[in-house]
Design goal:
18 helices; about 15% helix; repeat; elongated; seven-stranded mixed beta sheet; alpha+beta; about 35% strand; about 950 residues; disordered N terminus; EGF-like domain-containing protein; single chain; disulfide bond
């Protein structure tokens, strides 16, 4: 299929009747490339909305020779100005279609084109709203205004065709198009007229209304002000004109039109939505109609989520009219890095995993993006690299051993904590008597007295201390005892030694618990109530007298009366009370002993009763009686606790002391009768002669050959490791080879061919490539350069391809010969033509053979990629270009190109061949681009043919 494109060069100032090539100081090829390069610079500068006069001339002298700087600057300014004109003209037409003002350009540069094209578009809208035809035989205003008028006329007519056919288009022009008049628009049969409101007059342009010179009376002011509230819907009062002015709903955003399928057209007091379904349906697949610019624009399927790419492994690339899913490859990362699908980052490749990275005698040190080979002074016996120990471990020999932080750092934990070593770390636990505060994360003291976790007696008071508690006696010790602050007990006072007794001769002091006794040296005085009865003493005198009984005495009358011994002398001890009786007295104990105490023999003190010795204690058969001051306790053996029925019950230390952890963390507590032991968990064993401590079992030492490659012992277990390039098998002991090529195929470890080898992998390349210096990429072999004469025939041109080459023969057509100056060109043998021999003029001046090699599926920007420029060195106004596909060769399964893959873009005095879509490969494409030159009266002046061979390789590298 042939695609014809015509380009009119309106900027050209010279005409040429036949193509010729400059042969003076600069060759024709140089002129073509220089002009194209400079014009592209101007296009880019103008597309950025920059002033053309501010272009920064910073061109490579190798591209633009110093003698052509002036020509290049002129070309830049022309192409830059063209971009501004195109932009401003398009913006002006859009403003007219949206009923905006033609004076509201947002860009100061090229405003005249904005206004001119806006006004021209309005003319086209008016014509399209009438019965007049949109096309004219003769030019009305010239380019580009004639084109704008015709486009806008056609657009509104196509929009009108979608409206109600019964609606009168001829009489509705004022309703359809806004801003035709400054005040009142009156439709006519085939056009319209403008009228002004009262107090205004129409200017000569028959559009603008201005105030009349006469002054309005003050009496009219209230009437005018009343119009503020009397404006009809769609109108608003304007204080400057003192009139109800139309509201442009299209500009205020109040119009309820579908932006994608309708265009908003403001009317007097309202608005109208014009259907543009015909425009929408005319867009190709992958494009949608955009009413704001009245064009079909590409749909960005990637941005709108309309693609079906796997975002985890693929990148979505938008292309004109479609999209492409491209695998995420490591080529997007710098050398030495690979793309990680989970972190979405380029991660470092550890080249040292490859055992062949460094020669013998050197060790490999991995760096970010590369590696180093460092000479070693000693040769290690083991084939694997010494591991770098993790935090909390240190290297001991060739193994990583846990660091006992508790032994190295005595202050690892604070004063209220105990340090517990763990594999690779340590743990601070609270000491006994402390508990962890979850808010402050500090060990706080436990108040055992407050939560009743003490064992103080009823006669004692619990006083909390830091980390523990004390039992303080609450009752006084009483007479004869002194409180001992160290033992918290009442110690007996030895009154005899302290000389605190009142024993006199013939009595001597004997100490007792809490008191003392005065004992006769020959006899012992009763300790109970004493009654003394004196026997009558008979004395014989010369004059016998009657005698009184003991305890009596004669008074002065000679009568026997009672002797009050308690008054005469106190015969009782200090702890007794003397009570006189008739003829005697009684000593009554004044002390009352509490339970568990009794008076001593002298009756002076209360002494403890040893219930255990007197067998008064009521203890069970398994209990042991222990006397204590004032009572006794029944004690059970260690590991038992007393019950209410005086039996001994086993203490479950594992449950009772679980908060204090009777066993370490690597053991389970097992209760036994009267005791407990710690059962070590797997990987631990009890210490010799201590069933409450567990030590680690070194499986690697005790069981040689446990692992195939490496055995690493750690706290409570062991782990088998493998050398680089191997992985642990399911039994966790043997090692299997890692197929890096299959496991990391999404990372593309190798650009070309990945070959798995035991413990590693190796990169290779297809024929026509050699392995790169990074040992993973493939470099193309340029057979044409490295093998001179590889093409045997002189008529063949060697063209290098990715992974191959081609010897393509150039056979000049009849009447042509090889150009000795340019080996890829055939020129006419004779350039002479009769003045009326048009067939001679139509014959191409030359055939050029051009070869382009590329990789398949190359990313193509939205605007396309330039492949080839065809230009004439002579200024001409009438140029036509014709592009066609001569031949296509591709194997089955390869997407063949069509005309839609290519396009022509006008450049000064020529065109650029654009590639619009990625090409699949391998594929050979032959294009023929013809340039025809005509005189002003359409007489053939010359032509040139460019044969373009596009050779797409098989591999994307």
């Amino acid at each position: 299929m042939k695609e014809m494109m015509q380009v009119n060069c309106g900027l050209c100032v010279f005409y040429a009747f036949m193509i010729f090539f400059v042969t003076s100081t600069v060759s024709a090829v140089d002129i073509e490339s220089i002009v194209s390069h400079c014009c592209n610079e101007g296009n880019d500068w103008g597309s950025q909305r920059k002033h053309c006069s501010e272009y920064k001339f910073n061109l490579d002298k190798n591209v633009v020779p110093a003698g052509l700087h002036g020509l290049c600057l002129s070309t830049v300014e022309i192409c830059c100005a063209k971009q501004h004109r195109i932009y401003q003209c398009t913006a002006g037409a859009v403003a007219a279609k949206s009923s905006s003002s033609c004076d509201s350009s947002t860009d100061n540069y090229g405003t005249e084109f904005f206004k001119d094209c806006c006004e021209a578009c309005k003319i086209g809208l008016v014509i399209g709203s009438t019965s007049h035809t949109c096309s004219t035989e003769n030019s009305l205003f010239g380019s580009p205004w004639d084109d704008i008028i015709e486009d806008c006329c056609t657009d509104i007519r196509e929009a009108d065709s979608e409206d109600d056919p019964n609606e009168s288009n001829e009489k509705d022009i004022c309703q359809r198009i806004d801003n035709l008049c400054t005040h009142i628009c009156v439709p006519t049969d085939d056009s319209y007229v403008c009228k002004c409101r009262e107090g205004y007059k129409l200017l000569e342009d028959n559009i603008t209304c201005v105030k009349e010179t006469n002054v309005i009376d003050d009496t009219t002011i209230p009437q005018t002000l009343n119009k503020v509230d009397n404006c009809s819907p769609g109108m608003a009062f304007d204080e400057s004109s003192e009139q109800c002015e139309d509201i442009n709903e299209c500009e205020t955003g109040d119009a309820n039109c579908d932006r994608e399928s309708q265009a908003c057209l403001n009317t007097n007091g309202s608005y109208k939505c014009l259907n543009i379904i015909s425009k929408v349906s005319s867009c190709e697949d992958g494009y949608r109609y955009q009413a704001r610019i009245a064009q079909c624009v590409d749909i960005n399927e990637c941005a709108e989520g309309l693609d079906d790419c796997d975002r985890r492994t693929q990148l979505c690339l938008n292309i004109p009219g479609s999209f492409k899913c491209q695998d995420k490859v490591v080529d997007t990362c710098l050398p030495g890095l690979k793309y990680d699908l989970e972190t979405k980052l380029c991660e470092d490749v550890n080249e040292c995993l490859d055992p062949d990275s460094c020669d013998n005698g050197y060790k490999c040190l991995n760096t970010v993006g590369s590696f180093e080979c460092v000479a070693v002074t000693t040769q290690r016996n083991k084939p694997f690299r010494i591991p770098k120990c993790a935090r909390g471990y240190h290297l001991q020999g060739d193994q990583c051993v846990d660091i006992d932080e508790c032994a190295y750092d005595r202050e690892a934990c604070d004063a209220n904590q105990i340090c517990i070593n763990l594999p690779g770390a340590f743990q601070c636990d609270c000491k006994v008597g402390f508990v962890l505060d979850p808010l402050t994360n500090a060990c706080e003291d436990i108040n055992e007295c407050q939560i009743n976790l003490h064992d103080c007696l009823e006669t004692q008071r619990c006083d909390n201390t830091i980390g523990s508690y004390r039992c303080i006696r609450t009752q006084s010790c009483g007479t004869g005892y002194t409180f001992n602050a160290e033992t918290l007990q009442c110690d007996d006072d030895d009154e005899c030694t302290l000389n605190r007794h009142n024993c006199y001769d013939p009595y001597e002091c004997h100490n007792t618990k809490g008191s003392f006794r005065c004992i006769r040296k020959t006899t012992t005085t009763s300790t109970t109530t004493t009654t003394t009865t004196r026997k009558p003493e008979i004395r014989y005198t010369t004059t016998p007298q009657p005698h009184c009984p003991n305890g009596f005495e004669r008074n002065y009358l000679g009568a026997c009366i009672d002797i009050n011994e308690c008054e005469v002398r106190n015969p009782c001890s200090r702890s007794q009370k003397c009570i006189n009786t008739n003829g005697g007295y009684r000593c009554i104990n004044s002390l009352t002993c509490q339970n568990g105490y009794e008076l001593n023999a002298e009756g002076t003190q209360c002494i403890d009763v040893d219930e255990c010795a007197t067998r008064e204690a009521n203890c069970g058969p398994q209990q042991t009686c222990k006397n204590k001051p004032g009572g006794y306790v029944c004690l059970c053996p260690s590991g038992f606790v007393s019950t209410n029925n005086r039996n001994c019950e086993d203490i479950n230390e594992c449950e009772f002391y679980k908060d204090r952890r009777p066993c370490p963390s690597n053991a389970d507590c097992v209760n036994s009768i009267g005791s407990y032991h710690c059962h070590c968990k797997a990987g631990f064993k009890n210490e010799v002669n201590d069933d409450r401590k567990c030590v680690d079992v070194d499986e690697c030492t005790e069981y040689p050959g446990l692992c195939q490659h490496r055995c690493i012992n750690y706290w409570g277990s062991y782990k088998c490791g493998c050398e680089a390039g191997f992985k642990l098998s399911a039994n966790n002991r043997t090692c299997d080879d890692v197929d890096e090529c299959e496991q990391h195929k999404s990372y593309r470890l190798c650009v070309g061919i990945c070959e798995n080898i035991p413990g590693s992998y190796r990169c290779g390349c297809p024929d026509g490539y050699r392995i790169g210096t990074d040992s993973r990429s493939c470099e193309d072999i340029d057979e044409c350069k490295e093998t001179p004469g590889i093409c045997r025939s002189v008529d063949e041109i060697c063209t290098n391809l990715r992974g191959s080459h081609r010897c393509i023969p150039i056979q000049c057509p009849y009447g042509y010969m090889r150009d000795p100056d340019r080996t890829n060109r055939c020129k006419r043998i004779s350039m002479l033509c009769d003045h009326d021999d048009y067939e001679c003029f139509r014959k191409p001046t030359s055939y050029s053979y051009n070869f382009i090699s590329m990789v398949p599926n190359m990313t193509v920007p939205v605007a396309g990629t330039g492949l080839f420029n065809l230009q004439t060195t002579v200024w001409s106004q009438n140029l036509e270009f014709d592009l066609k596909i001569d031949s296509i060769y591709s194997p089955p399964g390869v997407q063949r190109v069509t005309d839609h893959y290519f396009s022509l873009r006008k450049v000064p005095q020529g065109v650029t061949l654009l590639l619009l879509r990625p090409l699949d490969g391998p594929q050979d494409i032959e294009l023929e681009l013809t340039m025809n030159v005509f005189t002003q009266d359409r007489t053939p002046s010359g032509s040139s043919v460019a044969k373009i061979f596009i050779l797409v390789s098989e591999y994307p590298f």
